[in-house]
Design goal:
With 801 residues, the chain is an alpha/beta fold. It contains 24 helices and 34 strands. The protein folds into six domains: 55 residues, no CATH class; 57 residues, no CATH class; 182 residues, Rossmann fold (3-Layer(aba) Sandwich), CATH 3.40.50; 182 residues, P-loop containing nucleotide triphosphate hydrolases (Rossmann fold, 3-Layer(aba) Sandwich); 56 residues, no CATH class; 91 residues, 2-Layer Sandwich (Alpha-Beta Plaits), CATH 3.30.70. 33% of the residues lie in helices and 24% in strands. Helix 10 runs parallel beside helix 11. It starts with a strand and ends in a 6-residue tail after the last strand. It binds a DNA duplex (12 and 12 nucleotides) through strand 1, strand 2 and strand 3.
DNA sequence: AGCACGCCGACT
DNA sequence: GTCGGCGTGCTC
């Protein structure tokens, strides 16, 4: 008797455990751990992951047999199965959610229900119900309002319900035509064809010219012949037709010119050599590659990977939201060609699935991708690289709330290989670990071409205001912009819209339009002319007069990119502006198009939000302007200073990377703030020291770890009292060393009419905390569902909202 | 999560 | 009497 242990696709606490299933005789030896299977679960059939195979079970009296395997080979190997279990404990998530997070979305199951007719005797009523067929889908039955009738028939034994477990994935198939005749035969046929068969003749002539064994349907139809002519030739035995699976290639129409390794500078040489050693001796080590922008980190990545590939191993490269850095993908594709699989959010579900399968089938040796690419199913991993290590997008905000850096380190330990964390502005956590020698620090302090860092000037916008300049461009930025336009050099204008995006305020009474369901002000959307809530989606018309005092002195505060664009055209009517934000880059590929447009010199100014801060490298940019540096500085987040510093430094790094030297203008209302000051000087080390003092005083990371618990409910009192109870419980079970803040209202105290309270735990070493938090979930579970409470626990949170 | 089972109110 | 409301509890 063989029994499979299965984690079922039901993400709840009660079912977050292994269920035992009998393996039918015919699949013994075929069902393996890591495969997806369809299993009966209660009255339904659902998907599950096999985690093990054993010979007996404590449930032997009520064992059911599994229905069928959904994979031919396991989709999760032993390492990934173990990683999933660890991840579930570490982030307090369900095992099933962790397994699903490791696979492309296409592999998530899709469930469908059908009614099957059992009684096939002539019966007008049944004939009518089933519309003369043997089965009817649940959806159809629902539409036709015959669910009760069908349920009755099930009771009579005339029908039954079947559950289908389907995969979202569709393999893409194309028709291929194999040549079945030799030239002489084709020639004979060609001559015997009637004169009006011009299309068939075209194809045969094409075949005689090409002399290939196989032709795709596309190739043949390019001769101008219709499908019917091809079919005619298949009938005549010229071709045999077959279907083959093809990968959807997102880079189909892109050409990559092969690059060779560049000679390394002394500094690069020094940095890469310990990495190469670690690869050689196959041991685990985390390196923090701290290198200023333009110091050549990527070449170090490339050459380290080359070494890994030479050893027959594989590499993972994580980049933040990769669709935003097409230049990065190009560099990897150019060096390693088809060995590279790319996984990022810009791909369709099918494309992602295909790229993933290239990895699984060992057709790709290098994966370049966003956060989830850290789970690439390699079995002989030689290196994991995390570029722009400080980026917060490496933390997943939905369940499972994991950080790619932690997963990378876990996997590297398993594979005995190095992790490289690269950044010009490392996260405080990583830099502190490097200082404590937990990570091994490698430094690149000089730019490759020995170009000096751009000159940065910080402009105090309060002074501009005092001097009567009420425009969003300071006099300095204005004159420099004019200068660049004159010289035909390019400018990047960076607008940080986060923080306070455009909201509406009455200048007479100070009324600010709020969302009726959430405690947050509504955002003004010019293109739809609506006031919108970014949290619950509520929207309403834009008022002409103040709803409170009927004044018509209504102003829109905060500056959107559209508004800046309009202003720009007012001041510089001839400037050619490319605007990049969520509105202009929504469509697939729009991003690349806009960048190409700018790169080819068809525009003078690139105006955008966060997304233009990263990785762009254009030679002709000599001016970078930051319109308001401090919009995110006042967010209720202990990382606000760090984020501001990183952003300003990254943006500044976009200027003067090549022959032309660059200038940066940072406009701010708080020029004295240390993160603005040190970013202006590009002085990471002094920023680090200052910020470490702030973190120490506030007992924040990297001095303390954090766990954040958020409780929400429609009733304020209920929310507060529950949070209080939970806080007390936790307090009683951990040491006095830990600091507990709360219960306090969340920074956004109400979303979608639900009040939100939280409790923040700061601690250094609390081995009992995670088990305690798990107990909280377990203990309150039933009560929570019953009373409509929701609880979310975030270990090491990055979003404090 | 779904779904069945079960125990109480308004109808043919 | 029964249909159907949704509270409760289970799923190998």
């Amino acid at each position: 008797m063989k029994i499979a242990t299965v984690i079922v696709d039901v993400p709840t606490l009660g079912t977050d455990k292994e269920f035992d299933y009998l393996i039918p005789e015919k699949w013994i030896g075929i069902i393996e751990p890591g495969m997806r299977v369809a299993v009966p679960f209660g009255p339904r059939t659902i998907q599950g992951f096999v985690t093990g195979v054993k010979s007996d079970s404590p449930f032997s009296n009520k064992l059911k047999a599994l229905k069928e395997p959904l994979d031919i080979t396991p989709v999760l190997n032993k390492e990934l199965l173990e990683l999933g279990e660890w991840l579930a404990t570490d982030t307090l998530s369900f095992k099933i959610s962790c397994f699903q997070a490791m696979l492309p979305a296409a592999m998530k199951a899709k469930y469908e229900k059908r009614f099957l007719r059992i009684n096939k005797e002539h019966n007008p009523f049944l004939d009518d119900l089933f519309a003369g067929k043997q089965e009817i889908s649940w959806k159809k039955a629902e539409e036709r309002n015959i669910l009760p009738a069908l349920h009755a028939e099930i009771k009579f034994g005339n029908a039954e319900v079947v559950y289908d477990v389907k995969s979202l994935a569709r393999k893409k198939m194309i028709k291929v035509y194999q040549t079945m005749m030799v030239n002489a035969e084709i020639l004979t046929l060609l001559n015997s064809l009637p004169s009006n068969a011009s299309n068939q003749k075209k194809i045969l002539e094409f075949v005689l010219k090409q002399q290939a064994d196989e032709y795709s349907a596309k190739e043949l139809s390019e001769t101008g012949a219709p499908q019917s002519s091809i079919q005619a030739l298949v009938k005549k035995g010229v071709f045999s037709e077959k279907s083959v699976e093809v990968y959807r290639d997102p880079f189909e129409h892109k050409q990559f010119t092969r690059t060779e390794p560049h000679p390394l500078t002394n500094e690069q040489q020094e940095a890469i050599s310990p990495i190469l050693d670690t690869i050689e001796c196959e041991k685990y080590e985390t390196y923090l590659l701290y290198g200023v922008t333009g110091s050549g980190k990527t070449e170090i990545y490339l050459q380290s990977i080359q070494k890994v590939l030479d050893k027959g191993q594989e590499a993972i490269v994580l980049v933040p939201e990769i669709s935003l850095t097409p230049q990065m993908v190009d560099r990897f594709k150019s060096r390693f060609g088809d060995d590279v699989a790319v996984l990022h959010s810009g791909l369709s579900i099918g494309e992602k699935y295909d790229e993933w399968r290239k990895v699984q089938r060992k057709e790709a040796k290098v994966v370049v991708g966003a956060r989830s690419a850290v789970f690439a199913p390699f079995e002989n991993l030689g290196i994991i690289i995390i570029d722009e290590e400080h980026e917060t997008s490496y933390k997943q905000e939905e369940l499972p709330r994991y950080h790619a850096r932690d997963v990378a380190i876990y996997r590297a330990k398993h594979h005995h290989c190095p992790v490289i964390l690269g950044s010009a502005t490392p996260s405080l956590e990583s830099f502190a670990r490097a200082q404590k020698k937990v990570y091994h620090q490698l430094t690149l302090s000089r730019r490759m071409n020995n170009k000096e860092l751009p000159h940065v000037s910080i402009v105090d916008m309060r002074e501009e205001m005092r001097d009567g300049n009420r425009s969003m461009f300071s006099r300095e930025l204005h004159s420099k912009l004019a200068d660049r336009l004159e010289k035909k050099e390019q400018t990047i204008l960076f607008l940080n819209r986060r923080g306070h995006s455009s909201f509406m305020m009455c200048r007479d009474c100070g009324y600010v339009m709020q969302c009726p369901h959430c405690d947050i002000s509504l955002t003004f959307h010019r293109y739809t002319n609506e006031m919108k809530c970014h949290y619950c989606g509520f929207n309403t018309f834009v008022p002409n007069t103040c709803p409170e005092c009927s004044s018509n002195h209504i102003r829109y505060f905060g500056t959107g990119t559209q508004k800046v664009e309009e202003e720009l055209y007012k001041i510089f009517p001839d400037a050619r502006v490319v605007r990049m934000d969520v509105d202009t880059t929504g469509r697939k590929g729009a991003h690349e198009k806009l960048l190409e447009h700018f790169q080819s010199g068809k525009a003078d100014i690139l105006l955008g939000t966060q997304m233009i801060a990263k990785g762009l490298d254009f030679p002709n940019i000599t001016l970078v302007g930051v319109l308001s540096a401090d919009t995110m500085l006042h967010l209720p987040d202990f990382r606000a200073s760090e984020k501001t510093f990183q952003l300003l430094t990254q943006v500044s790094g976009r200027a003067g990377r090549h022959e032309l030297s660059g200038e940066v203008v940072i406009q701010t209302y708080t020029p004295e703030h240390y993160s603005v000051q040190f970013a202006g000087k590009q002085d990471y080390d002094r920023f680090y020291h200052q910020e470490m003092i702030m973190r120490k005083v506030g007992s924040y990371p990297p001095f303390y770890y954090l766990s954040l618990i958020t409780i929400s409910h429609e009733d304020l009192m209920k929310t507060v009292s529950t949070t209080e109870k939970i806080t007390k419980y936790i307090q009683s079970r951990i040491s006095d060393e830990a600091i507990i803040l709360g219960p306090v209202a969340s920074p956004i105290p109400r979303i979608n009419n639900r009040y939100r309270y939280q409790c923040l735990i700061k601690y250094k070493h609390e081995p009992d905390l995670k088990p305690t938090l798990h107990k909280v979930l377990e203990h309150y579970q039933q009560q929570f569902i019953k009373e409509g409470l929701t609880i979310s626990i975030d270990v090491n949170p990055y979003m404090m909202m």
